[in-house]
Task: inverse folding
């Protein structure tokens, strides 16, 4: 996990920046807040699918920084009346290729883009970190959810708050787990290309399994994910075919637009 090697960056971005934004909200009278949280709050799950009532015990600085962010929001809600929805993302994937929007992290850390780029010859072979986990094929299992489904959840979250909804933390996932090796198989199936990959040792801070229960999202927001894994891969593949070098450079931002803040995947993804 990158946050294990660079913890200060994650605390600064996910705790410090959240506090700064909350202070700005208070100054101008904004009383509603959508927070991007993470499944990494749960650490090694005691059971799956994981509900929002599961214990919160992160195993890496990324998870701890997001948990601290949620606590800051709860305290601000109590003290100042700000109402929030904290969305605990599982593994965001896919793209909106019709709008020209996709993943362009530098460096890239997410599994599906890494696998697609390896298949396209845009990067070196993919590394699979750990094949000795207690899972069906020995590799980590994650719950992948299409970014367009996440966008829909955000709109529903805003409507919930505008309707007077109380502060709440909500999982966003599909309730379906896919292993790293199964992702490789899916990328090969969808693209028709081979994914060169190498088996490697485990990384510290990677839980074996993270799969969501999305019952609360269904109950509170009326949200259900509509897109499956193949659609996520198809959308991402379409984006990378059109944008093999990522976003073009723009004036004032030589690395391209948009440059994203640190967002560590929830382990081996």
Result:
């Amino acid at each position: 996990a990158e946050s294990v090697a660079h913890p200060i960056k994650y605390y600064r971005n996910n705790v410090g920046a959240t506090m700064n934004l909350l202070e700005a909200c208070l100054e101008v009278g904004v009383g509603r807040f959508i927070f991007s949280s993470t499944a990494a709050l749960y650490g090694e799950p005691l059971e799956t699918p994981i509900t929002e009532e599961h214990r919160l015990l992160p195993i890496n600085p990324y998870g701890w920084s997001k948990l601290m962010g949620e606590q800051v929001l709860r305290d601000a809600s109590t003290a100042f009346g700000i109402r929030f929805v904290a969305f605990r993302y599982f593994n965001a994937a896919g793209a909106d290729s019709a709008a020209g929007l996709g993943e362009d992290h530098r460096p890239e850390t997410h599994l599906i883009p890494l696998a697609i780029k390896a298949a396209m010859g845009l990067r070196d072979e993919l590394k699979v970190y750990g094949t000795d986990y207690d899972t069906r094929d020995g590799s980590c299992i994650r719950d992948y959810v299409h970014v367009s489904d996440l966008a829909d959840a955000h709109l529903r979250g805003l409507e919930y708050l505008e309707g007077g909804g109380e502060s709440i933390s909500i999982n966003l996932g599909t309730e379906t787990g896919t292993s790293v090796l199964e992702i490789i198989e899916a990328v090969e199936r969808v693209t028709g290309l081979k994914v060169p990959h190498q088996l490697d040792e485990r990384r510290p801070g990677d839980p074996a399994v993270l799969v969501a229960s999305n019952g609360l999202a269904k109950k509170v927001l009326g949200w259900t994910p509509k897109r499956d894994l193949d659609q996520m891969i198809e959308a991402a593949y379409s984006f990378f075919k059109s944008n093999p070098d990522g976003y073009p450079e723009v004036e004032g931002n030589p690395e391209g637009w948009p440059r994203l803040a640190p967002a560590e995947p929830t382990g081996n993804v």
